[in-house]
Amino acid sequence: MRYGTLYGVGVGPGAPDLLTLRAIETLKHADVIALPRSSDYGASMAWRIIEPVIGKRSDQERLFLTFPMSKEPVRLRQAWDTAFAKIGERLENGRSVAFATEGDPSLYSTFGYLLCEAQRRWPGIRVEVVPGVSSIAAVPAVLGVPLADGLERIAIIPANYGVDDLVTILNSFDTTILMKIGSEMPKIVDALKRTGLLHKAAYVAKATMPEQRVAADLQEVCTERGDCFAMVVVTRRERSGVLAGEVSPNAVLAQPQVG
Ligand SMILES: C[S@@+](CC[C@H](N)C(=O)[O-])C[C@H]1O[C@@H](n2cnc3c(N)ncnc32)[C@H](O)[C@@H]1O
Asked: Whose CA is nearest to atom 26 of ligand 1?
């Protein structure tokens, strides 16, 4: 069977002008745009991001797909199965489907599951991934702080799956990124206090969106249920750049970086 092409399109962190040219082209030319949302009645963040740029077209289908915010495997499997069947109907009719996903498709994205499933369900299908600006790039830009220099190491933690080992992680990495915060903020603040890193952490919700919120003092947001689009970044290192400060002959300096 000749299937339509399946695209996984990263639509960036929120601001429509952070959509890439390739994402815009792919979305404009697809027969179907598949749009994930967390409930049947809720809005799709991906559609909110792309609508001002690509608009509605009468000959292009918008296929809203519900993926509930749940950890129950049975409920999730059912939702994915229904969504993938709807996508399959279109692909089997030779129509191209662009699955729009917030940020980048390779990071905690529903498209990841679709990618794993695609060759099994639709053997020989052409799949193309269009990278997007991830929240991991957007949040440091909002904060004006680099994530890592030279020899520094980064940890990325999906906090809503548990932060019991956070003290160890904070002590082991130069920068720790906490995503999917859910209701874990009190535990995160507690771990930051125990490691003496509270003043080194920043909270950013809805980076690059009109509702963007930044809190340099995490105690301000400690008792709130985390925003669905919020991140905490903790950077331990005091950075002085390569030109400042005294350099001892034995000091380990970052290798020059190209790119
Ligand atoms: C399911 S993951 C999707 C990540 C997305 N694929 C990416 O590349 O950014 C959702 C998590 O990403 C983070 N996130 C996504 N967009 C964000 C934004 N605009 N501002 C802050 N955090 C964001 C939050 O931690 C949120 O809980």
From this structure: 229
Contact in structure between 35 and 63 (CB atoms under 8 Å)? yes
Backbone φ and ψ for 63, nearest 5 degrees, come out as -110, 100
**For the segment 145-176, what is each residue's pLDDT rounded down to a tens digit?**
999 998 999 999 999 999 999 999 999 999 99
DSSP state, residue 27: H
Q: Which atom of ligand 1 is nearest to the CA of 107?
A: 6
Query: Is the CATH code 3.40.50.970 the one for domain 6-130?
Result: no
Which regions in the chain score pLDDT beneath 50?
A: none
Q: Whose CA is nearest to atom 7 of ligand 1?
A: 103
Question: What's domain 135-235's architecture?
Answer: 2-Layer Sandwich (3.30)
Ligand 1 atom nearest residue 142's Cα? 20
Domain with CATH 3.40.1010.10 in the chain: 6-130
Whole-prediction pTM value?
A: 0.91
